[in-house]
Specification:
The structure holds 3 protein chains of 3 kinds.
Chain A: E1 3-8, E2 11-16, H1 21-27, E3 51-54, E4 60-63, E5 74-76, H2 80-96, H3 111-118, E6 135-136, E7 142-145, H4 154-162, E8 168-171, E9 178-181, H5 197-201, E10 207-209, E11 222-227, E12 236-242, E13 245-251, H6 264-267, H7 269-272, E14 282-285, E15 288-291, H8 294-306, E16 313-317, H9 323-336, E17 342-344, E18 366-370, H10 379-392, E19 395-399, E20 412-414, H11 422-428, E21 432-436, H12 442-451, E22 456-459, H13 466-471, E23 485-491, H14 495-498, H15 502-507, E24 510-515, E25 527-530, E26 539-542, E27 548-551, H16 564-575
Parallel strand pairs in A: 1-5, 16-17, 16-23, 18-19, 18-21, 19-20, 21-22, 23-24, 24-25
Antiparallel strand pairs in A: 1-2, 3-4, 3-5, 6-7, 7-10, 8-9, 11-12, 12-13, 14-15, 14-25, 26-27
Helix pairs in contact in A: 8-16, 9-16
Chain B: E1 4-10, H1 16-22, H2 27-31, E2 35-37, E3 53-59, E4 62-64, H3 65-77, E5 78-84, H4 86-90, H5 102-112, E6 130-135, E7 145-147, H6 154-165
Parallel strand pairs in B: 1-2, 1-3, 3-5, 5-7
Antiparallel strand pairs in B: 4-6
Chain C: E1 3-10, E2 17-23, E3 29-36, H1 42-45, H2 54-57, H3 66-80, H4 87-119, H5 130-136, H6 138-159, E4 168-169, E5 172-173, H7 179-209, H8 211-216, E6 223-229, E7 232-233, E8 239-243, E9 249-253, E10 262-265, E11 274-277, E12 287-288, H9 290-297, H10 304-315, H11 327-348, E13 367-374, E14 377-385, E15 391-397, H12 399-402, H13 404-418, H14 426-438, H15 445-449, E16 456-460, E17 466-471
Helix pairs in contact in C: 3-4, 4-5, 4-6, 4-11, 5-6, 6-7, 7-11, 9-11, 10-11, 13-14
The chains are: A alpha/beta, B alpha/beta, C alpha+beta.
């Protein structure tokens, strides 16, 4: 890329050869109105807001977002003529569909409205058309109201370019043009993966989520950048809060792991879980859990477990806990309770270590997925794979993978016995990514080890911060056996992970459960210690690639719920040992 | 200085725009030094004086034949006509009716509604007839100043009135221009 | 040859209304009609929208009491998602409602009703308005401005706007009250209570010196309706109580069951329906709502000063319902006092600052009824949705509607009492408006919109031909 010089609004400015005029303007702080443009999506020049005058003698009007910047170009962005055209455009957009700002969920945060204000539109010179248009509220999380759609196509591009799902597209032409869902389906019945990217890119109130209408405008909200705690991808999120309530989870376009993309598990599910929260310690008295206080809880803890022999004590920690919490838990179990029995709640996993990067998936011409399941989590990895196949013509081979809707993208579907068939493909490919699950059999492990050094090897992890835990020295193979005292640091772990421990918990004499919510282990617990939930924690997570990312709390925990680390320190104190 | 004469009227509206006018609070005392309010829902005079007024303010859109008449009367009697609020500017929330034939709307209101007993659609020479479509007032009269908002804020209204008092046509921008 | 007086426009509750007075050959009033001349069709045009949009859409029914619609709608939405809202959410909704009662009741008394009372029914219509009050009694006018401002600011502090706020949502409210906001309101509330007490003295003095007029002015027997909680005045929650003309309790029901008790009658000559007590039929089952209705229905008020005033009110007719329409003005101010006292009580409870403001739910039950006392009377919002929360059916019975029959009756009574076809004066006709104004049917009427009456009188021949028009526009 070489440097180029343009004259924009009479001033010399610098850009690079690959830049569009809009890029150059952005780099030089020149404000050009845009509407269909969204950073991270391909520009299409649909809305004509970013029109600029190009040339001196013969002036051409063209869209800045789709016109390549050339050395020596003379550009004007803010002339009366341009602004009149822009104003006409906005008025036509307002007249074409049914915009009722007064009750719109997005009023105050609407890009169309902002532009109309910017161009001082106090009425619309054109007759309003009042087309009767549908509203699709069939989807669990997402609403599409065609009344407010300006056909900018951002949702379509996000669906196609980010999620690589292409559920959305246009249909018809001219006045009849509309956002289309599959073959004119409802969103509920469509191929939509519920990634929710369309919501985030929609400039108006045409696509929005069911949870957050009217709960707060941006100016009334707080925004916290953090990392998703739902799986080991470690997508960047932005938590929108108001009055200590979470309104919405956005994808963080600045995240170099996920680049704005999220899946339904990360974006919606955390807001849809109806669970009973523990707000105070609970102690089992005569078979019943009774509300207690911190003083009593730590006292019982020390009495019951403190007195046991180290080898009779086991500690299990959730992979949703931060590195800092896991580290301290390990020290508590090792140094305070003098036990070596510590492991992850999700149980043992393969010892094969991935050391590749997610971004490299997009650069691979061959992608092999072995024993991996994307139906519950790691869906953003699935999106990357789809993107590689659809956009970059990568080949995909699925081996023994219940990979949700990936099979239609695959060149080959193999059983694990047929693994050797892949070898030839690998030898022919330039860049290879192998993505494997955490429960793979010995022969698969052996096969993967063969390619360990040469390919982009990515191992899915069973929990958000599993890799962080292993890096802190937690044993990958640990399974508790007949512990008399069981200390479970569950934080806000899901029941399907906790279910694995029920039998073990039943066998134990005394079970301490440190948890945010009531769960399947509550029945077995003798002492329950309330723990912070995901949005209340701070610390670091290490994702499946080994990237360590900051977790920031977005809301404050209820008054009697303490930080997991603070709890452990006070337990150690009570025993008379120092824990740092 | 002679006071400028203002007449106001509401049409297909909720009265919120006139309430927002009252929300200028104490500033009304200042305004009354320069403004004489003639006919208005807030005073006892209903029709603008024969000789006319300087500024006529209409809030509410056109939803029935009577409102159309009233808008035309106001236009005739005033030099500058102001459309106050979303309904007057483009029809506002009442535009939602435009997605249904008026017969269906009337039928729901007076026949179908669950609590209505032996319903019928009111029809009388004393009642205005619903227009087929709701619209802003500029569909039937020429408008000189538009003040959108549901309702326009008291600040927007105060600003517009002071501009008019000073002989200028107000241009709303910044926080004063809003549609919600 | 009969005559028909057309009093027009009486802008109606949320728009325009007119009165026609039919006069026989002898010049006596045959019959008067109160026509409401606007219909916007919210019951139909909300169909297809989403339930959670309803608190925003339906508050646009009325710019004077938008908060009532906003809250009634939110209550219906609470039922749609099947939740009980947290304590603080309820307190904050109530606080906003109190703000609205203070602004609406104060607005009505000072801006709209007081010109009649303080300047006189027969005063020059050119000055018989709030601006006349400003000229004649500036301190009183300033107090009026401050009362209204106080109420409006409560609404603004909570819902970012004074009119059509964005605050109540299904399951609670969207924002917590800040300490700064609380302290601002609390800092002014004592002055507000004092001001309202002053207003109560004004109306009581006026009633005292116009005893005869008051007792004979649109005074008639009727049933009454209002919300109560354990027999006490309630404006946000509670059950609907219906009493008969002697004050005996006919029913006390949960608002969700309203269809079993309330039905609506339709007449050809007005766009406003006539609600009535279903078991008694129309028109026998017609009742009155609003401040007079509520005071006749409740036994006590939970705040001390307003309760003292209620006791005095109950003496007027020895514990039986008070019937004369002018008492609406008095009872309106008793409620104004209650709202101010209750504002203070709510703000002094530390829970008002809690952030526990929303109950969440992913359920859609498909139906919800929200009932609330709007300043002008009991308000019903009833929605049905599909499984996705898209509105399928809307039924609304608005506060002023319940008083439709009473307003019509009042107009008729006052017309018969004061008007004879031979000599019609503006002042006499103003009394007809004043009868409607008692009921404060959402500003328009009560605003003296029909003040300058008659705007014109059409004299019709028996076959309906107009043979003369008397115009009385002001110079």
């Amino acid at each position: 890329m070489a440097e180029i010089t343009l004259i924009i609004n009479g001033k010399k400015v610098k850009g690079e050869t690959e830049d569009t005029i809009l890029d150059v303007c952005e780099k030089n702080g020149i404000d050009v109105p845009t509407l269909c443009h969204f950073k991270g999506l391909t520009d299409v020049g649909a809305c004509r807001m970013c029109i600029v005058e190009i040339g001196e003698e013969r002036v051409a009007i063209n869209t800045a977002c789709t016109t390549q910047a050339l050395d020596g170009m003379v550009v004007k962005t803010d002339t009366e003529r341009l602004n009149n055209l822009r104003k006409i455009n906005i008025e036509l957009l307002l007249a074409e569909r049914n915009h009722f700002c007064m009750f719109c969920e997005m009023s105050g945060d609407c890009e169309l409205q902002d532009l109309a204000y910017r161009f001082k539109i106090d009425y619309i010179r054109y007759p309003l058309l009042f087309p009767k248009l549908p509203l699709d509220a069939s989807h669990k999380y997402i609403i599409i109201d065609h009344n407010r759609c300006i056909l900018c196509g951002r949702c379509i591009r996000a669906c196609d370019e980010l999620e690589a799902n292409h559920t959305l597209d246009f249909r018809e032409r001219g006045w009849q043009k509309m956002i289309n869902i599959d073959l004119n389906s409802t969103l509920r019945e469509s191929t939509c993966t519920s990634c929710g990217s369309c919501i985030q890119v929609c400039p108006t109130g045409a696509i929005f989520d069911k949870k957050s209408p009217y709960l707060g405008r941006s100016e009334e909200c707080e925004f916290t950048k953090t990392v998703c705690s739902e799986c080991s991808v470690g997508c960047g999120t932005e938590i929108v809060t108001r009055a200590n309530h979470i309104l919405r989870i956005n994808g963080n376009f600045d995240s170099d792991v996920s680049r704005g993309l999220l899946c339904d598990k990360g974006r919606f599910e955390p807001l849809y879980k109806e669970k009973k929260r523990y707000l105070k310690p609970m102690v089992r008295v005569n078979g019943e859990l009774k509300e207690s206080d911190w003083e009593e809880a730590t006292k019982i803890m020390v009495e019951k477990i403190g007195g046991m022999d180290g080898k009779d004590i086991a500690g299990l920690v959730s992979a949703r806990a931060t590195n800092e919490t896991i580290d301290l838990f390990k020290k508590l179990i090792n140094n305070v309770f003098c036990s070596e029995n510590i492991g992850m709640l999700h149980g043992p996993i393969t010892t094969i270590k991935g050391k590749g990067s997610l971004n490299k998936i997009l650069e691979s011409d061959l992608i092999i997925v072995v024993g991996a399941d994307f139906s519950k989590d790691h869906k953003v990895v699935r999106s990357l794979i789809k993107r590689a196949v659809v956009k970059n013509d990568s080949s995909l081979i699925l081996v023994n993978s219940n990979a949700n809707n990936l099979s239609s993208y695959a060149k080959l579907l193999l059983k694990k016995e047929e693994l050797e068939k892949v070898n030839e493909e690998i030898s022919m490919a330039n860049e290879v990514s192998i993505i494997f699950g955490y429960k793979i059999s010995g022969d698969v492990e052996k096969w993967i080890s063969k390619y360990g050094g040469e390919v982009n090897l990515i191992g899915l992890m069973p929990g958000t911060n599993s890799l962080g835990a292993y890096k802190l020295g937690i044993n990958r193979n640990f399974k508790p056996r007949k512990a008399r005292g069981l200390y479970i640091l569950a934080v806000d772990e899901d029941n399907d992970i906790l279910e694995n421990i029920i039998e073990e918990a039943k066998k134990s004499e005394f079970v301490v459960l440190q948890t945010s919510y009531e769960n399947v282990l509550s029945k077995e617990a003798d002492l329950i210690i309330p723990s912070m939930m995901w949005a209340e924690r701070s610390g670091n997570y290490t994702n499946m690639e080994g990237k360590t990312q900051e977790v920031n709390k977005s809301i404050t925990s209820p008054p009697e719920v303490k930080d997991d680390r603070e709890i452990m320190v006070s337990i150690a104190d009570k025993i008379g040992k120092f824990l740092s | 200085m002679t006071k400028i004469k203002i007449a106001t009227e509401w049409l297909e509206s909720c009265a919120g725009c006139h309430m927002s006018l009252l929300d200028i609070d104490e500033r009304i005392l200042e305004l009354l030094k320069y403004v004489e309010i003639t006919s208005s829902p807030l005073t006892d005079l209903k029709h603008p004086p024969e000789e006319g007024v300087d500024v006529g303010i209409l809030s509410g859109g056109i939803g029935n034949s009577d409102q159309e008449k009233k808008a035309k009367e106001m236009r005739k009697k005033c030099k500058i006509l102001v459309a106050l609020g979303d309904c007057a500017v483009f029809g506002g929330i009442c535009n939602l009716r435009n997605f249904f034939p008026k017969e269906e709307v009337l039928n729901r209101g007076f026949v179908e509604t669950e609590s209505t007993s032996k319903g019928k659609i009111p029809k009388s020479e004393v009642l205005g007839e619903l227009t087929d479509q709701v619209s802003g007032v500029n569909k039937v009269v020429k408008v000189d100043v538009y003040i959108p908002g549901c309702p326009p804020s008291a600040d927007s209204i105060y600003y517009a009135l002071t501009e008019l008092v000073n002989g200028r046509i107000p241009v709303l921008e910044g926080d004063l221009l809003h549609y919600d | 040859m009969g005559k028909k007086l057309v009093i027009e426009p009486i802008t109606r509750i949320e728009g325009h209304a007119k009165v026609t007075i039919h006069i026989d050959d002898e010049g006596n009033v045959e019959k008067s009609y109160f026509h409401v001349n606007q219909f916007r069709g919210f019951e139909k045009f909300c169909e297809g929208r989403l339930y959670f949009e309803m608190p925003q859409i339906t508050q646009r029914i009325c710019g004077i009491c938008p908060v009532s619609h906003h809250l009634a709608s939110a209550k219906a939405c609470d039922e749609i998602i099947g939740v009980e809202i947290p304590k603080t959410a309820k307190m904050l909704r109530e606080l906003m409602h109190m703000g609205q009662f203070i602004q609406s009741h104060s607005l009505h008394f000072f801006h709209l009703a007081s010109p009649d009372l303080l300047l006189g029914f027969d005063a020059d219509p050119a000055i018989r308005n709030v601006f006349g009050i400003i000229n004649k009694k500036p301190e009183l006018a300033l107090m009026a401005v401050k009362l209204r401002k106080f109420g409006q600011e409560i609404i603004e502090i909570l819902g970012r706007k004074k009119i059509h706020p964005i605050f109540a949502v299904p399951g609670g409210v969207n924002g917590a009250l800040s300490i700064k906001g609380r302290d601002k309101i609390l800092g002014e509330v004592d002055y507000i209570i004092k001001s309202i007490k002053k207003a109560i003295e004004i109306i009581k003095d006026w009633i005292g010196s116009n005893k005869e007029l008051v007792e004979n002015f649109a005074s008639f027997k009727s049933g009454y309706m209002g919300l109560v909680k354990d027999g006490a005045l309630e404006i946000y929650d509670g059950d609907v109580r219906l009493v008969d003309k002697e004050g005996n309790i006919l029913e006390e029901f949960n608002g969700s069951d309203y269809l079993n008790y309330v039905a609506e009658h339709v007449e050809d000559w007005t766009y406003l329906k006539f609600p009535y007590y279903k078991k008694m039929g129309y028109p026998e089952g017609c009742y009155r709502v609003g401040p007079l209705g509520r005071m006749n229905v409740c036994e006590k008020i939970s705040t001390p000063l307003a309760n003292e005033e209620l006791k005095k009110f109950k003496v007027i007719n020895n514990g039986k319902p008070v019937e004369a329409s002018i008492y609406y003005h008095y009872t309106r101010l008793i409620e104004d006092l209650y709202a101010a006292e209750k504002t203070k009580e709510l703000l002094e409870d530390p829970d008002i600052l809690s952030k526990d403001i929303r109950a969440e739910s992913d359920k859609i039950t498909g139906e919800g009824v929200g009932v609330i006392e709007a300043p002008r009377g009991t308000l019903f919002h009833h929605y049905k949705t599909d499984e996705n929360g898209v509105i399928k059916r809307v039924n609304l019975i608005v506060a002023t509607g319940h008083n439709n029959w009473a307003m019509s009756k009042s107009v008729d009574m006052v017309a018969k009492q004061f008007i004879s076809g031979k000599e019609i004066s503006e002042g006499l006709l103003n009394r007809v408006e004043a009868a409607i104004r008692c009921y404060d049917p959402c500003l328009s009427c009560s605003t003296h919109a029909l003040g300058q009456m008659p705007l014109y009188i059409e004299i019709h021949s028996s076959n309906g031909e107009i043979i003369d028009v008397i115009k009385r526009d002001l110079k």
